[in-house]
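Exercise 7b. Backbone tokens:
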């Protein structure tokens, strides 16, 4: 699955603290488009959030400025990422792959779903759907609280007595879309702004024998047609809060009547603004989940919740 690298592979690492590691992780993902790994030194307690990225020398100043700005925004939201020390180093591709093997562990959602890397020997329980993933330069593994929430929602909302369609908005590695296929959703579609995500998601679909059951495309949520060709029973949008707020009308119009909208990737301090935005569009929160500084929610149309 590996492809030749056009530019040096680099580890972009930010030293932070245990209380802010998730916020720093999402901030770094927002800059790089890569889901970071989090490493904690058991002896010192030092936390390092890092992502692996093809990066030309000419882009180094741009990346540094963007990361500093992202750390400043965290402070504005009341999150202290200290010491927030940034380091960037070249690494051999084999070191990057081995790093993912350390960080990526199997994720079980009850007895319904197992997501695991190809090198792990854990077997699914009887009746447990399985999704295999390999590392990619655009990666999502289910380790993050917001992704786990989305996976749990897919398990909970799946009704085996009827067909249900699924849209994964901002798919990353394709983990949510592929989990949807494994759980019996169909048709399933996903899109991402990053072409590397589209490529990696396609490779993971092939790995699971799901190529014919899922459609991935490169698309920008800010430029989606306001009138979609298809509506979905479930729409997962694991995106940054500012995108969820700005593009709420484009997201809700893609949910079919009686459908579910799953929103994640939101800091607890930002969740009220997100909820207010969707409430003004006629949506109400069914339930939510708070884990550390992250809050995710499941929404339906207000008139449907009142029935």
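Sequence design result:
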């Amino acid at each position: 699955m590996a492809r030749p690298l056009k530019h040096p592979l680099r580890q972009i690492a930010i030293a932070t603290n245990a209380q802010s590691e998730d916020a720093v992780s999402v901030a770094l993902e927002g800059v790089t488009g890569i889901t970071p790994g989090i490493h904690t030194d058991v002896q010192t307690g030092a936390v390092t959030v890092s992502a692996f990225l093809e990066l030309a020398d000419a882009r180094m100043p741009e990346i540094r400025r963007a990361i500093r700005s992202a750390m400043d925004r965290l402070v504005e939201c009341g999150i202290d990422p200290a010491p927030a020390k940034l380091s960037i180093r070249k690494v051999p591709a084999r070191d990057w792959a081995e790093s993912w093997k350390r960080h990526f562990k199997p994720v079980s959602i009850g007895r319904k779903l197992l997501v695991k890397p190809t090198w792990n020997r854990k077997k699914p329980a009887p009746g447990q759907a399985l999704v295999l993933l390999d590392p990619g330069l655009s990666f999502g593994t289910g380790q993050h609280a917001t992704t786990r929430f989305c996976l749990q929602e897919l398990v909970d909302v799946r009704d085996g007595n009827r067909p249900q369609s699924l849209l994964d908005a901002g798919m990353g590695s394709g983990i949510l879309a592929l989990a949807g296929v494994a759980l019996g959703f169909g048709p399933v579609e996903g899109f991402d702004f990053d072409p590397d995500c589209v490529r990696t998601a396609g490779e993971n679909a092939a790995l699971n024998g799901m190529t014919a059951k899922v459609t991935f495309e490169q698309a920008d949520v800010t430029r989606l047609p306001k009138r979609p060709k298809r509506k979905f029973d479930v729409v997962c949008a694991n995106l940054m809060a500012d995108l969820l707020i700005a593009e709420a009308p484009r997201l809700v119009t893609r949910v079919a009547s009686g459908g579910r909208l799953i929103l994640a990737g939101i800091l607890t301090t930002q969740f009220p603004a997100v909820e207010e935005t969707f409430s003004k569009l006629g949506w109400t929160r069914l339930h939510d989940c708070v884990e550390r500084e992250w809050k995710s929610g499941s929404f339906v149309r207000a008139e449907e919740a009142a029935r």
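Instructor comment: The chain has a mean pLDDT of 87. DSSP finds ten helices and 14 strands in the chain.
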